[in-house]
Amino acid sequence: MEISAKQPLVLDNIAINLEGRLLISIDQTIAPGDVLSVMGPSGSGKSSLLAYIAGFLDPAFSASGRALLGDRVLTNLPAEQRRVGMLFQDPLLFPHMSVEENLLFAIPHSVKSGAERKLRVKSALETADLQGYQDRDPATLSGGQQARIALMRVLLAEPGALLLDEPFSKLDAKLKSQTRKFVFEEARKRDLPVLLVTHDEIDADEAGGKVFNLENTEEQ
Amino acid sequence: MLRIAPTLALLVLLGPVFFGLLATIIPAFGYFPALGGETLTLDPIRNLLLEPGIYRSSMISLWTGLGTTVISLLVVAGFVAGWSGTNWFRTMQHTISPLLSVPHAAAAFGLAFMITPSGWLFRLISPEISGLTRPADLLIINDPAGLSMMAGLVLKEIPFLFLVTLSALPQVKPRRFAHVATSLGYGRMAGFIYCIWPRIYPQIRLAVFAVIAYASSVVDVALILGPTNPAPLAVRLVGWMNDPDLTMRFQASAGAVLQLLITAFALLIWIALEKIGGFFLMMKRCQGNRFANDNPMRIFVLVLISLSIGMVFAGLAILAMWSVSGLWPFPDVLPSSFSLKSWSRQIGTLARPFWITITIGVASTLIALVIALACLEREQRTGNTGGNQAMFLLYLPLLIPQASFVFGLQLFFLMSGIDASLFGLVLVHIVFVLPYLFLSLADPWRAWDKRYGFAAKTMHAGDNRIFWSVRAPMLLRSILVAAAVGFAVSIGQYLPTVLIGAGRWPTITTEAVALASGGDRRLIGVYAFLQMALPFIGFSIAAIIPAVLFANRRDMKASS
Amino acid sequence: MFKKLLLALSAATFLTGSVQAADLSDWGAIEKAAKGQTVYFNAWGGAQNINDYISWAGDTIKERYGVNVIHVKLDDTANAVAKVVAEKAAGTDKGGSIDLIWINGENFASMKRQGLMLSPGWADKLPNWKLVDWKNKPTITTDFTVATEGYESPWGMAKMVFFHDTARKGTMPDSFAELVAWTGKNPGRFTYPSPPDFVGSSFLKQALSETVADPARLLMPVVESEFETITAPLFAKLDEMHPNLWRSGRTYPKNKEAMRQLLADNEVDIAFAFSPAEASNAIANGELPDSVRSFVFSKGTLGNTHFVAIPYNANSSEGALVLANFLISAEAQLRKQDPKIWGDPTVLNMSALSMEQQKGFNDLDQGLATLSPGDLGPTLNEPHASWMTRLEKEWSRRYGVAN
What is the total count of domains within chain B? Predict the structure, then answer.
């Protein structure tokens, strides 16, 4: 798999504006296995940075600069070809699919063998400590379980980088720390560059990497 | 393929309207070579104006169009203002939705069976209370002022306007503003009307216009309940369109143009009424009139809307009862005997109109559904909704009196040789099915949480895969409900089916209205019952399929 | 069913062969050509018993000759005429959408005048024509004073008959003049279908025939300059009667079925129809109580014949010929005269039938409320077709805009 050769996520002079107002200006490189935490209060437009990298920035924003995975320029590609995984504030498990169907949806089409696909689902569930949950209705899972499935779903798609949009903000304190730990561990295991946006300082602390404070942008 | 979807939609909607109007207007000035009209002349218009009672017919159309709209809108606005957020409101919401799918003709028959002097309401109080052993000689239905016709229309327009208002309601976040107004000492209704209604109204305005256009040019309801001497303009038009005398076609065209003007005039008057109403509201608002004690008014409105709903349900029940009744003389409240004779005699004759109805309904709904989905999906992918302009174009076929362009369309089809074919019928049904289907689907489609799509994209899913595996299944319920709405609209079409189908493609609705002239209540009962049963079946299928498919998916359950 | 639709569609689209030149002397060839055709029979469809009869005829023809019959139900025969007019205007001279029309009077006159009929006349060349009693029933060859010339084939006889419920008290009028007086004493208890409904217009003609000074004048076309004088007594009587009608004459039932429903609902006391078995039929169907009886005016009521005709551009004219021929067979006519089924007096000549067929007619139970042929009274001649048109116009001018 090409993805096995891990590459850094490069944010090359990215600037995002809304109605002429500069929201974000950032120029950073995230090495494989590293985490960059972007901190900012709500409404600061930090989510638009992730949207720009992933390829679904609302046309109301204007943006310049490039995002690269290694030397592959992401910002020229359609969203579905960028191969960056993303976790949202909500798990967004497809409500009409079973847990297994959700996970199968993510596994690349190039994996043809049905048995192999099911095997990958099984091992992902084991990793998430949810053995035997294949046929469950995602709506019947707890918040923490849903968050873990959501992460496994992203990882099964074999992304080259991981974007986290405050994925822990809706969990209660105890779950939050467990889930956070699980996410960072799994990302590190796979040597993925991780970009986290959050307004929660503990998130950034736990991530352990560099912290980029958005308020600085405006001062600069 | 997707790129041409909006163009295709416009073509399908506006093409028939445009060519239909053209082929209506030109003969009105005497020019239609195939019918021997070689020169432009004002004769058709002159003949039209010499027609006995033409002024009266036009006034009836104008009056019923505006009257229906004023009453329906007042009741809906009053009810939403007085009761939104209450349990009564939620109950009403569930009761009223099914009424939208009841065809106008069926509701009109039901009302007629209730209120005529030999009808069920009089039977209920006869002879004990009323002292009547035979029906009173009262002119109730077919009254010259069109009041019963208006009542029949109001019964159907209240549910329509109510549901349109309901879909506009969440966007203005009514609760917060209502609380502010109440805390300032305003009555519930006043607070709502002052603060929230002005922002709802622009969103339902086109629907209100559609009601005016419909009510001022309706044919089937007018045939059943409307004045007869003279009849409303649209009914007389259809008579002239079918007159054996060839030259009447020109007069019919002139009449169709007059109908267009009457409807336009009704809309103009309405716009003036809007201004007056707006001014009046502003005045009251600025004067700080609080109408704090509005309980009597609230109860009055609740009674009105309950009565109107109850009347439809009771009427439909009486229709169903007539279809299985033996001899049922006045003043008996119940038939002296029940029999399935009316049904068993109909089975043979019913089959063809039944299947034609289904065929046209399914075909026009499927085509309209594909077009609507393609438009919405393209809108999703490009982020371009087309805005108010697109909305107006979508509503356009509903704002122009059917008789005005369908007659021209008939002439047009006749010339091009696709007259009376199933194809022509499906095409003309789509003109009416597509707007309703689109309107019903657009809201849930746009309200879908786009992040599911983003999530799928980060898993390398392309637009097509997202559409088929994520969005369409998640919105399956809404898609099926929209399809059921489209199907119900198709079932209810009378005039386009009669004119374009030229009697060779009878549907349940055209047969039912044709029977109206015969006055055989059992027979009408059978057809009207089927007329309301078919849309109901459509909605049931729309409810059952997702329920079965997603039986074990909690978040896929119907939300309301 | 779907197959049938497709069949009908393909028949309408592809089989445009015209038979204008069909040779009626070679009936076998016509039956052969008819096989597989679909006949669109445009017939008024407001009465269930008639619809049932037509579907029986269709089934029988289908079985015996392989001809499909589709009953296009009209609420007004004028619509079918209009259709042919429109097709002619559009140049659809072949493959028209109507193959057979149930017709008579004004509509026949109009189609014949405009050359919209299958030509030359064919009705008197049908194999079953030999059974038809055209010698003793002049209305078969003269439809509302217009010569039929074989452009339409007789289907049934009609005569105006009144009926009332004997369970309600009161004496019935015996003439139009008495009827007007009766409405004065019983306001709100009589009405008639609003012209141009066929039965309503017929009522006007009945009244005209009774009030006109010189009945012979009605057999000739209307002369505009004399119209007012001739009809003055009629409209004087109508003016007198109208305030005493049901709903004070502000609205009218749309046709005889609606009027019959009013009788059933006890809203009026008298109804009438153009078919002697109408009341018996309605009783048998549970639409009227069994105390209803028929009566006629002793000085006579209008009578006429109704027909079927083939438009000049019919798509399946052979099939239509086969159906028209079947409709005047002893079998179809016997069934038509059966009050339990339709109850229309036959157009056939009893002496042309076999003994067995005659017995069939003699054995028919005429039904509770049907007057025997002897009690039907004299038949008044139908006025020239132009009278009906002119009367309808005048009626609509005078009473069409009620207040």
Answer: 2
